[in-house]
UniProtKB/TrEMBL annotation:
Keyword Transmembrane helix: no
SUPFAM superfamilies: NAD(P)-binding Rossmann-fold domains
Family to which the UniProt record says this protein belongs: Belongs to the short-chain dehydrogenases/reductases (SDR) family.
E.C. designation(s): 1.1.1.69
Name listed for the protein in its UniProt record: Gluconate 5-dehydrogenase
Alphabetical list of Gene3D superfamilies matching this protein: NAD(P)-binding Rossmann-like Domain (3.40.50.720)
Enzyme class: oxidoreductase
UniProt entry keywords in alphabetical sequence: Oxidoreductase
GO MF annotation list: gluconate 5-dehydrogenase activity
Organism (species): Clostridium sartagoforme AAU1
Any one GO biological process: bile acid metabolic process
Length: 262
């Protein structure tokens, strides 16, 4: 058998949440290039329209839906519409996410809850809506976008770290509960990636910029393209016996104590 065929996504329907731009866009674009039908959502029509145009610039006819992934009724309605208009979802990437960088003692409980809602409750809600179709089809791939903060803490990101730590365990639990239906649920833990979400940390002279370079053996920030190969692997038949795993794509951050100060 041609081993490369096992990495193909031909004939698969892939939903990537929050994928008008950023990491989600890159992953969804790579899925289209690997043969999948690309479906994505974002939080408003303007973002969805911009996303559809951006995919089209890469020759990909993407299906876009407006949906706030924290709204369970809206998610259920979106998944039903996708199944009617495009097909049952074979691959789900729970990518949509937010961060609030605030010292814990200054963080309002409502802001903490908002981060948990988007970054942890929403992957639960969307997975719950998509899994019945995967069971019907006899296979499925769920990929949760975790984080360095699934393993590490740092100042000002208490809500985000709590959410991403929980997302790591939700990943393992979905893998445990639905593995018998030939559904594999894994995570991708990106390192520090150049996207709008990290733009505030990369401003000229920001101390965090050099800090990340010193903590990354690859001595660079990651790009969204660095995530696409691992994402295709976890969405393809090539990973059918990989389940409950968090694949860290971090240039080696988690393995490294950090560069000795010169
Ligand atoms: P981003 O640039 O902020 O994009 C996030 C996307 O999710 C945006 O399109 C955003 O729409 C959408 N979104 C937010 N809340 C939503 C909701 N309630 N419903 C639907 N869509 C929603 O983030 P990113 O850097 O690409 O990160 C994507 C994922 O990777 C996130 O889960 C993030 O935590 C994770 N991650 C990022 C990094 C990194 O270094 N960048 C590293 C590790 C993990 P709006 O524009 O309306 O907010
Ligand atoms: C931060 C960053 C990180 C990245 C990512 C690292 O403020 O520390 O935003 O949290 O977004 O999650 O994996």
């Amino acid at each position: 058998m041609d081993i490369m065929k096992s990495f193909s996504l031909e004939g698969k329907v892939a939903l990537v949440t929050g994928a008008s731009y950023g990491i989600g866009f890159s992953i969804a674009k790579s899925y289209g290039e690997a043969g999948a039908t690309v479906v994505f959502n974002d939080i408003n029509q303007d973002l969805v329209n911009k996303g559809i145009e951006a995919y089209a610039e890469h020759g990909i006819k993407a299906y876009g839906y407006v949906c706030d992934v924290t709204d369970e009724d809206g998610v259920v309605a979106m998944v039903k519409k996708i199944e009617e208009e495009v097909g049952i979802i074979d691959i789900l990437v729970n990518n949509a996410g937010i961060i609030r960088r605030v010292p814990m003692l200054e963080m309002k409980a409502e802001d903490f809850r908002k981060v948990i809602d988007v970054d942890l409750n929403a992957p639960f809600i969307v997975s719950k809506a998509v899994i019945p179709g995967m069971i019907k089809k006899g296979h499925g791939k769920i990929i949760n976008i975790c984080s360095m903060m699934s393993e590490l803490g740092r100042e000002t990101v208490s809500a985000y770290a709590a959410a991403k730590g929980g997302l790591k365990m939700l990943t393992k639990n979905i893998a445990s509960e639905y593995g018998e239906y030939n559904i594999q649920c894994n995570g991708i833990g990106p390192g520090y990636i150049e996207t709008p979400q990290t733009a505030p940390l990369r401003t000229e002279g920001h101390p965090f910029n050099n800090f990340i370079i010193s903590k990354t053996p690859a001595a660079r920030w990651g790009t969204t393209d660095d995530l696409t190969g691992p994402a295709i692997f976890l969405a393809s038949d090539a990973s059918d016996f990989v389940n409950g795993h968090i694949l860290y794509v971090d240039g080696g951050i988690l393995a490294y104590i950090g560069k000795q100060p010169q």
